[in-house]
Write a structure and sequence with these properties.
The complex is a heterodimer of chains A (292) and B (389). Chain A has three domains: 148 residues, P-loop containing nucleotide triphosphate hydrolases (Rossmann fold, 3-Layer(aba) Sandwich), CATH 3.40.50.300; 36 residues, no CATH class; 92 residues. Chain A is built from 15 helices and nine strands. In chain A, the strands form three sheets. A five-stranded parallel beta sheet of chain A has the order 2-5-8-1-9, with helices on both faces. Chain A has a two-stranded antiparallel sheet with strand order 3-4. Chain A has a two-stranded antiparallel ribbon with strand order 6-7. In chain A, a hairpin with a 3-residue loop joins strand 6 and strand 7. Chain A is elongated, with a radius of gyration of 24 Å. Chain B is of the alpha/beta class. Chain B folds into three domains: 99 residues; 38 residues, no CATH class; 171 residues, 3-Layer(aba) Sandwich (Rossmann fold). Helix content of chain B is 43%, strand content 13%. Chain B is built from 15 helices and nine strands. The radius of gyration of chain B is 27 Å and the shape is globular. The chains are: A alpha/beta (292), B alpha/beta (389). At the A-B interface, helix 2, helix 5 and strand 9 of A face helix 2, helix 3, strand 1, helix 8 and helix 12 of B.
């Protein structure tokens, strides 16, 4: 293992992010190659967290663009400050030089920077998180291409603005649709799976202070048992942590059938799934936990 | 671990190119751009550590999750073994494991399918007019629409395909959340209004407007190609072909005892040719059915990225299933929760005496939005408005 990669893994661990080699390698490459990192995986496996941890590690700003259906250039890239522009027009009504006036009102002063533009105009390179890109329209991806491949933005009235420092870009997707090839090709790719047993125990210990080792192991057993079943919404790490915190708040130091049934809503967040888990299922899951 | 004697870069790049070629050969999508990224990535890692090389290449070549198994296998077999410590190896011949070297020797089921296709599409010209005395080539549209697929002549087929395309072109659309410029839309477009006002010295004389864009529906088709469905699959596929041109996104899967994604095969738009290619490549074409297991396979591997809240899922099957119905129900439930609607097309429903009593149909009914017949063109035509909204 390269020393840089090992160092990165250690640093991420210190920031309470327990990263597997696949994650660290991908993040290291994204930084070294200055390419965006496309992260896919089930809900709650820690995709968004990568960007947050990296921003903390690099001691830089995290700029976040949350995608949604209908997201357009005005909200993602830039917008003109119309009020100020109109005001300036009124004030300069007697100004005879139209060219000059136009130059003024379409200047940087009247430009409202939205996340993408902000990310490339910062003095120090920030971390740019483009969250849930699969929620945006396919057309929006095409628009991202210019920004992500050349790190530049073209504003018709102003010209092309180039990045002074390339930001570290992290795109996340829940795979609610396939990301277009053109965009995918411009990124490095990382797929995060649910963590393995030991890693999940470690995550609980790191994130939930004051939890007993036995309880962390038991929780992990049950959660991993649940994932192995065919649930509509299998629990992610986020659910595991919710549950662990709930149990610590309730001063529980071990799991039994009653407490599992009472707090199941922390892990299984779907009515249909809950109805599938009968009492004996809980027993089976716990029996597995006890054996481990 | 320190790198074992760093190999010359050129050598490594050639090796990577060969490895990428082998990946492509087994169907893993790897482009030239990916290879370049791969080569770049190797400079930033410890190439003496095979695990690190594997992780780095998987990321830089952008290997999708569903190809990981194939990638890992090939990496172990090809990259790792052929890797740097054996420079003596003949590097000009890409080493391809035998089991991937084409499958021309599995002709047996193929021949049967070809024959079946030939029988139906009629390669012989000297065809006798149908029993009902209809002359070949004489096919008034009205009659053609009601004709049951099993009884069609090759000429009918061609006419039907043309008709299908016309039908499909009528498919309507749904408004999106995206806003596009429009003459009299409900939303004021400030940016364009302002730009326009400059023509009048900053007076807002008229407002530019935006309206919701119109978006084509997206469609996922799951087509039963088992023996009992043989007569229909051709028409249903032809119909789906025609639909592809007017929908935003169409994904097609065939199933019988296993599930196959057909979408990549349908580029040509040539029904007969494609069907033959399919028959050659789909395992067990015209065999039996295990609907439940196949739909579960769809749910596990494809549901998330093919079905969205605006997607209509069409299932073409007669519901004559050999598998257990529990898995069918689970699968339909999972699809139901993601999709806009599920429409089940059943060719048996053309018979007025038909009741959906097959075990599979019974299990499916509560989870399906519509159960519609699919035995002739008229039935398919009736389907169009259901896909629209």
């Amino acid at each position: 293992m390269r020393p840089e990669i090992r160092a990165l893994q250690e640093a991420m661990r210190r920031a309470d992010y327990i990263a597997e080699p696949s994650i660290v390698t991908a993040v290291h490459l994204a930084r070294a190659m200055e390419k965006p990192l496309l992260v896919e995986g089930d809900a709650g496996v820690g995709k968004t967290e990568i960007a947050k941890v990296m921003a903390a590690l690099m001691e830089t700003e995290l700029i976040r663009l949350q995608c949604y259906e209908g997201l357009d250039v005005n909200t993602a890239l830039y917008e003109w400050n119309y009020q100020k522009q109109l005001l300036r027009l009124r004030m300069g009504a007697d100004e005879t030089e139209a060219d000059h006036l136009e130059g003024v009102i379409f200047g940087r002063r009247y430009l409202l920077e939205r996340p993408l533009l902000r990310a490339i105009t910062r003095e120090t390179a920030p971390v740019l998180l483009i969250d849930e890109i699969d929620r945006a329209d396919e057309g929006f991806e095409a628009f991202l291409l210019e920004v992500l491949s050349d790190f530049q933005v073209t504003i018709p009235e102003l010209g092309t603005i180039r990045a002074t420092h390339r930001p570290l870009v992290v795109l996340t997707s829940n795979r609610s649709r396939e990301i277009g090839d053109a965009l995918r090709r411009r990124c490095l790719y990382l797929y995060i799976e649910h963590p393995a047993f030991a890693k999940e125990v470690e995550i609980i210990r790191a994130k939930v202070p004051g939890i007993s080792d036995a309880l962390a192991v038991q929780i992990t057993h049950v959660v991993q048992g649940l994932r192995a079943r065919r649930l509509m919404k299998p629990p992610g790490v986020a659910e595991t942590l919710d549950w662990a915190r709930a149990l610590v708040t309730l001063h529980q130091d071990h799991l039994d059938a009653d407490i599992v049934s009472e707090t199941l809503g922390c892990v299984v967040k779907d009515q249909h799934d809950i109805s599938l888990l009968h009492a004996e299922d809980v027993e089976t899951l716990l029996a597995g936990a006890g054996a481990g | 671990m320190p790198a074992t004697a760093p190999a010359p870069e050129r050598h490594l790049v050639a090796h990577l190119a060969r490895f990428s070629g082998e990946l492509r050969h087994v169907g893993v999508p790897v482009g030239l751009r990916d290879e370049i990224d791969g080569a770049a990535a190797l400079r930033f890692i410890d190439i003496g550590d095979p695990e690190e090389v594997r992780l780095a290449l998987r990321s830089a070549l952008k290997i999708p999750r569903r190809w990981w198994a194939a990638f890992d296998r090939l990496f172990d077999e090809s990259w790792r073994r052929a890797a740097l410590p054996h420079p003596a190896r003949d590097r000009n011949a890409p080493r391809i494991p035998r089991r991937w070297r084409g499958d021309e020797n599995t002709e047996a089921p193929l021949a049967r399918i070809r024959r079946q296709l030939d029988e139906r599409t009629g390669t012989g010209e000297a065809e006798v007019p149908d029993a009902d005395g209809e002359l070949p080539g004489y096919s008034p549209r009205a009659l053609l629409r009601k004709k049951v697929f099993d009884e069609c002549t090759p000429d009918d087929l061609r006419d039907m395909e043309r008709l299908l395309e016309r039908l499909a072109a009528r498919i309507a659309t749904r408004p999106s959340r995206r806003l596009v410029p429009s003459a009299r839309g409900p939303v004021v477009d400030v940016r364009r209004s302002f730009r326009r006002s400059l023509a009048h010295g900053g007076e807002l004389v008229e407002l530019a407007r935006r309206a919701r864009a119109v978006e084509l529906p997206s469609l996922v088709v799951l087509c039963d190609t088992s023996g009992s469905m043989d007569a229909c699959s051709r028409f249903l596929l032809a119909f789906v072909f025609a639909l592809r041109k007017v929908t935003r996104r169409t994904e097609i899967f065939a199933f019988n005892t296993s599930l196959t994604r057909l979408t990549p095969w349908l580029r040509t738009g040539d029904v007969t040719g494609t069907l033959e290619r399919l028959a050659r490549n789909v395992e067990d074409w015209s065999g039996g059915t295990r609907i439940g297991e196949c739909l579960l396979a769809f749910v596990d591997n494809h549901l998330r990225h093919t079905v969205r809240s605006d997607t209509t899922v069409l299932i073409l099957s007669d519901g004559l299933d050999r598998g257990d119905t529990g898995s069918l129900e689970t699968a339909l439930l999972a699809i139901r929760r993601r999709a806009r609607r599920i429409i089940w097309l059943n060719p048996l429903m053309g018979d007025p005496r038909y009741r959906p009593e097959a075990k599979g149909m019974q299990a499916a009914l509560p989870h399906v939005d519509r159960l519609v017949p699919a035995h002739n063109l008229e039935a398919l035509e009736a389907l169009l408005p259901m896909i629209e909204r």
